[in-house]
Design goal:
The chain has 187 residues and is mainly beta. The chain is built from 2 helices and 14 strands; from the N terminus they run ββββαββββββββββα. The chain has helices at 36-39, 170-173; strands at residues 4-9, 16-21, 23-25, 28-30, 50-56, 61-68, 76-82, 84-91, 102-108, 113-117, 121-127, 132-138, 147-149, 167-168.
């Protein structure tokens, strides 16, 4: 059996969960992480141009909430290859019916799930176990001048993180809270 990718929508337009179906035998398993043909529609004709990897030692640590402003907005495909995380996307798209709504999913080495995060959404996660490895596929290269972020504990968004925060980088902790005048990212 060839490994499959099953795509499921979420309550936020353009945000999808991918459930990978590995082919297993006595040796272990083989799984498809990415297939341009299967994911073409979700990528809106864009190509994967950068692949990143992160490793987080501590349970309860947070990374995020990050995004890029135009013209460097990006679609991300995020997978957890080791451990377990609570992965979250926040809709920051101006005019979206789900503006400032968030959706989270557990991604783990055991459930074989991935998140497709559309342009204009902030992304971050909290580790639910120690020693978590994440793989990120991006449709745009990182541009420091286009970097944006929101504070992961911003009460205007109100993400229901599952654990107390054990670690947050200085960079992420320094993200300002959204002002009432924030009307979103124009794509």
């Amino acid at each position: 059996m060839m490994p499959a990718l099953h795509i499921m929508p979420t309550p936020i337009a353009g945000l999808h969960l991918i459930r990978r179906e590995p082919a297993e035998d006595s040796r272990g398993y083989f799984e498809r992480i990415f297939c341009e043909e299967t994911l073409r529609e979700l990528l809106s004709g864009k190509r994967i141009v950068q692949i990143n990897h992160s490793f987080t030692h501590t349970k309860g640590a947070m990374r995020g909430m990050h995004f890029q402003y135009p013209p460097y907005t990006e679609i991300k495909i995020v997978s957890c290859l080791r451990g377990k995380v609570f992965d979250v996307a926040v809709d920051l798209r101006r005019g979206s019916s789900t503006f400032l709504h968030w959706h989270g999913e557990v991604l783990s080495q055991d459930n074989h799930n991935a998140f497709v995060i559309p342009e204009g959404c902030a992304h971050g996660f909290q580790t639910l176990t120690e020693d978590c490895a994440m793989l990120y596929l991006h449709t745009a290269a990182y541009h420091p001048d286009a970097e944006g972020g929101i504070h992961p504990l911003d009460t205007r968004v109100g993400i229901d993180w599952p654990l107390p925060v054990t670690e947050l980088s200085r960079h992420d902790a320094a993200q300002t809270l959204l002002k009432k005048t924030f009307t979103g990212v124009r794509l």
